[in-house]
Amino acid sequence: MIDTIHKVETPEGILLHFRLSGCSARSAAWFIDLMIRCAIYFPAAILFFIIFSEGVATGLMMITMFLLEWFYPIYFEVLHDGQTPGKKRLAIKVIEANGVAVGWQSSFIRNFLRFVDFLPFFYGFALLSSFIDKSSRRLGDLAAGTIVVYSENQKQGQKIPQIEPDFAPIQLTYSEEGAILAYAEKLNQLSKARQQELANLLQPLHMKEGPQAVISIQAYAAGIQGHDEAKSI
């Protein structure tokens, strides 16, 4: 794989594309998160040693470090769309390999296995694993079934492919026109097989099959869209 694209087909036949993040972006995000944690450690240490005795302050500091090191990434990944502050700054996020948002169990596994990824020194195993695995996953990701991808905006409106408009041989209802427009807008998200499967359902309308059926539905959508735009002028 050379295009760094992770593809997932949903049960509805929609093909999702995710651009995988490499080591450079993940390392930069890790460094930003480290700086944020350090910005908490130093003021906390000063405050603890001013207020409490040395023994109590040391204990509180160890608890603070434990919580931040282990639960900081879990909290942000699960409750903030897979993004720690560092990942958000680099526009990357953690998701499940099947494309859904990362859950508590997966986040716990991938983060508690960081100590294995760190071996033999400074994330040596993690780097080796990310270079070998086709999805650039470290060992924690492999065990948890997660991937790190770029958080590109997937909510932008889809455009209907440009094609010579045509009109259905019968009068369509508003809901039927809406269904045809929705199909055309999501066409690029569907696998080829699913495109044809849905288009073939309207065979009594266009009397075609396979790729030609898909083209006919696109043409109907272009005609509907052009008619709606003309009415709005």
How would you describe this structure to a colleague?
This protein has 233 residues and is mostly helical. The chain is built from 11 helices and 4 strands. It has 2 domains: 5-150, no CATH class; 174-226, no CATH class. It has helices spanning 23-51, 54-79, 85-89, 104-112, 114-118, 124-132, 139-144, 174-185, 192-200, 203-206, 210-232; strands spanning 5-9, 15-19, 92-96, 146-150. The relative contact order is 0.11.
- How many alpha or pi helices? 11
Radius of gyration: 25 Å
The shape, in one word, is: elongated
Strand % is: 5-15%
Query: What's the overall average pLDDT, rounded?
Result: 85
Structural class, please?
mainly alpha
Number of domains: 2
How many distinct beta strands? 4
The ordered string of helix (H) and strand (E) elements is EEHHHEHHHHEHHHH
- N→C terminal distance: 48 Å
Sheet with most strands: strand arrangement = 1-2
Task: Please bin the fraction of helical residues.
Answer: 55-70%
Largest sheet geometry: 2 strands, antiparallel
Low-confidence stretches: 229-233
Keywords:
233 residues; mainly alpha; two-stranded antiparallel sheet; 4 strands
Give a nutshell description of this structure:
By secondary structure, this protein is mainly alpha-helical. It has helices at 23-51, 54-79, 85-89, 104-112, 114-118, 124-132, 139-144, 174-185, 192-200, 203-206, 210-232; strands spanning 5-9, 15-19, 92-96, 146-150.
